[in-house]
Write a structure and sequence with these properties.
The protein is mostly helical and 105 residues long. Helices cover 40% and strands 10% of the residues. The protein has 5 helices and 2 strands. A two-stranded parallel ribbon has the order 1-2. The longest helix has 11 residues, at 91-101.
């Protein structure tokens, strides 16, 4: 069974504020679940994603549906993105890949 979380407009603003680069200077990794249609239409986390990428002081892990991957790459010019299809990846290999890329061994 899926869990559905409803974000009301005021609540979404609070989550968006949590993604501001100035709030995340101490955080090495930021995970956004999920970047999708809202962001592709300049809503949701769109501005926060752009700000985090511009600040480039964090590793950004984004969950993106397969059908949106190419659009997300193009939208934020993520030419060096590492794409991991989590459906075909074990948890252990995902952790190893992430740790290797950010030198956390």
């Amino acid at each position: 069974m899926e869990t559905v979380i409803l974000f009301l407009p005021g609540e979404l603003l609070n989550f968006v504020d949590c993604l501001k680069p100035e709030i995340n200077k101490q955080n090495r990794i930021i995970i956004i679940d999920e970047v999708g249609r809202l962001e592709l239409y300049n809503k949701g986390w769109s501005d926060s994603v752009a700000e985090l990428l511009k600040a480039s002081c964090n590793y950004l892990i984004m969950a993106v549906r397969i059908d949106n991957v190419q659009a997300v790459i193009e939208r934020w010019q993520l030419d060096q993105a590492i794409i991991m299809n989590i459906s075909n990846t074990t948890i252990s290999s995902a952790i190893t890949l992430i740790a290797d890329k950010i030198n956390m061994k």
